[in-house]
Specification:
alpha+beta; CBS-domain; 5 strands; globular
Length: about 130
């Protein structure tokens, strides 16, 4: 896995949501795209945070949240990311160490894609089949 690069297996079409969107908007996008997390972007499209289904479930667990709660109020602003030229082994290490399943792929504050645990498993399967 050391020779396999993040940029070769990342998902380039990242589903994003504006930091000023609502909880209702976030839930709608997550369900529409059948995903477990959204990259939050600022007004010029730069990464500002991440919202996961776990974040939304935590809101629900703490009481019935308002549908118009703004994403920036419950997003995780401290996003752990990875460079597209790093190898997949580094991505795996970062994910397991931080107990996360997705890493935004960022260079020069620009969102280039996202690499998920599913992307890495597909890469692993593909490499094993080729051998």
């Amino acid at each position: 896995m050391n020779k396999l690069r993040v940029k070769d297996y990342m998902t380039r079409e990242v589903v994003t949501i504006d930091r000023d969107a609502t909880l209702h908007d976030a839930i709608e996008k997550i369900l529409e795209h059948n995903i477990h997390g959204l990259m939050v972007v600022d007004s010029v499209g730069r990464p500002a945070g991440i919202v996961t289904t776990d974040d939304i479930l935590a809101l629900i667990e703490n009481g019935e949240p308002e549908g118009d709660t703004v994403v920036s109020e419950f997003m995780e602003a401290a996003v752990i990311s990875i460079d597209p030229d790093y190898d997949l082994q580094r991505a795996v290490s970062i994910m397991t160490r931080n107990k996360i399943h997705r890493l935004p792929v960022i260079r020069d504050r620009k969102l280039l894609g996202i690499i998920t645990s599913s992307d890495i498993m597909r890469a692993f399967k593909e490499v094993k089949i080729r051998r």
